């Protein structure tokens, strides 16, 4: 599948439904597997790392450095793919790509190898922050800061981190649409990460899910036929679907910011550091389930495509898994499902693939998104009455997580640690 037609708008996207992967680029050294997430997960994960873990050590440089890495590597490859050597054409392509990913709109006209001011209009992280948390006390555009630095490296063929970014205006602070970033030649104040390539899948095939009434192929066809990608002119670079704003990061961005946070915590505090940070990352996944999955279950798209297939409460779970398998997260199946217990299996979950590619084999299970996500599915369906489509309020969320019979999850096995698959067991407390 290729989105758009002319060279400055063509994004070489390859969809591999069998592997549950969506790959951008053709150069093995620079292509990236992109995944769908929404504004609620993106902003909650950023706040978790930036402000919660940030109480113990400075995490903002991790968020900036990870975005710089992905933009630099990805855009360098895409410029080569498209034969773009002229700076102005690279700028146009880069700004189009930023909007295609659902991040908003960005004006690179005045950007030079010495930096300068970069204004933006609508921004995914700004809109997401205001929706979830209200106005911010300080600029929230850490991802775009890093993206701009990495994009400048690629556009002007600079050494990594040549330009230092900062944000001088933020719509999440002022409530306006406008944000402003400034790049200078002071040198980086963030770590330089430089891992290229996509990372090989770990192999294996997902077991068949237990019986259900969902036509997975029909769901996939319908989901992939939705307007899932942004356009600077038509959508202000934002993508609204399933009642949320969605984006397409390379999964290594999420991997890098999560795992570098864990690694730094362990470096500073030993095993206590992992005990401190891992629940924060799992909670981000649980919030993702509440807001993203909850939003999907309440959406017009669900009502039109999936809900007519649902004959049982369990079908609501399997229908969600069919959608997850279109998000690039890996291949998910469910091998046990009752109102009190479930077993979910994932082959090539993006955190296992990412950790293995970036760092090698871990001595812990780096699977936070799915831990929180599967727990959230069970809490919403079997404790939250999601089939009646309740409003997704904070009061509702707090009521769910404080129930005496709320669900908890354990990682039975993890593919990053050498297992054939990642398996998660979700059970009621007590």
Task: Please characterize this protein's 3D structure.
With 430 residues, the chain is of the alpha+beta class. Helices cover 44% and strands 19% of the residues. It is built from 14 helices and 14 strands. Strands 1-2-3-4-10-9 form a six-stranded antiparallel sheet. Strands 5-6-8-7 form a four-stranded antiparallel sheet. It has a four-stranded antiparallel sheet with strand order 11-12-14-13, covered by helices on one side. Helix 2 runs parallel beside helix 5. The longest helix has 27 residues. The protein is globular. The chain starts with a strand and ends with a strand. The N terminus is likely disordered.
Q: Quote the beta fraction.
A: 15-25%
Radius of gyration: 21 Å
Shape: globular
Q: Main beta sheet, described?
A: 6 strands, antiparallel
By secondary-structure content and strand pairing, the structural class works out as alpha+beta
The H/E string reads EEEEHHHEEHHEHEHEEHHHHEEHHHEE
Q: How far is the first residue's CA from the last residue's CA? A: 48 Å
Give the helix level as a range of percent: 40-55%
Strand order of the largest sheet: 1-2-3-4-10-9
The helix tally amounts to: 14
Kindly state the mean pLDDT as a whole number?
93
Number-wise, the strands total 14
In terms of per-residue confidence, which ranges show pLDDT below 50 for 5 or more consecutive residues?
1-6
């Amino acid at each position: 599948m290729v989105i758009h037609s002319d060279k400055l708008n063509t994004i070489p996207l390859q969809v591999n439904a069998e592997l549950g992967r969506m790959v951008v680029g053709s150069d093995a050294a620079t292509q990236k597997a992109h995944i769908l997430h929404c504004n609620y997960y993106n902003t909650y994960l950023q706040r978790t790392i930036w402000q919660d873990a940030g109480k113990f050590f400075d995490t903002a440089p991790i968020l900036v450095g990870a975005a710089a890495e992905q933009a630099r590597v990805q855009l360098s490859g895409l410029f080569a793919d498209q034969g773009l050597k002229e700076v102005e054409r690279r700028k146009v392509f880069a700004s189009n790509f930023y909007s295609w990913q659902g991040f908003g709109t960005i004006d690179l006209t005045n950007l030079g190898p010495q930096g300068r001011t970069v204004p933006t209009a609508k921004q995914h992280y700004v809109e997401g922050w205001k929706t979830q948390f209200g106005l911010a006390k300080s600029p929230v555009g850490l991802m775009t800061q890093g993206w701009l630095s990495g994009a400048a490296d690629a556009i002007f063929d600079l050494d990594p981190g040549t330009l230092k970014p900062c944000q001088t205006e933020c719509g999440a602070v002022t409530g306006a649409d406008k944000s402003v970033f400034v790049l200078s030649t002071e040198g980086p104040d963030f770590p330089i990460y430089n891992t290229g390539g996509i990372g090989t899948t770990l192999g294996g095939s997902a077991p068949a899910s237990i019986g259900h009434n969902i036509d997975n192929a029909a769901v996939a066809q319908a989901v992939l036929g939705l307007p899932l990608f942004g356009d600077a002119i038509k959508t202000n670079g934002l993508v609204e679907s399933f009642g949320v704003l969605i984006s397409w990061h390379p999964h290594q961005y999420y991997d890098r910011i999560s795992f570098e946070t864990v690694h730094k915590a362990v470096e500073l505090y030993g095993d206590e550091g992992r005990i401190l940070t891992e629940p924060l990352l799992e909670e981000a996944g649980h919030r993702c389930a509440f807001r993203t999955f909850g939003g999907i279950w309440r959406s017009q798209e669900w009502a039109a495509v999936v809900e007519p297939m649902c004959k049982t409460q369990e079908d609501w779970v399997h229908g969600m898994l069919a959608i997850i398998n279109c998000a690039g997260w890996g291949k998910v199946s469910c091998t046990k499902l009752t109102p009190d217990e479930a077993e979910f299996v994932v082959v090539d979950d993006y955190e296992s693939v990412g950790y293995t590619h970036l760092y090698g084999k871990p001595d812990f299970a780096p699977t936070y998104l799915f831990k929180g996500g599967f727990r959230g599915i069970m809490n919403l369906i079997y404790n939250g009455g999601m089939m009646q489509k309740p409003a997704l309020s904070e009061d509702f969320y707090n009521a769910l997580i404080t129930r005496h019979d709320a669900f908890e999850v354990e990682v039975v096995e993890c593919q990053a640690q050498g297992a054939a698959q990642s398996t998660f067991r979700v059970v009621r407390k007590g």
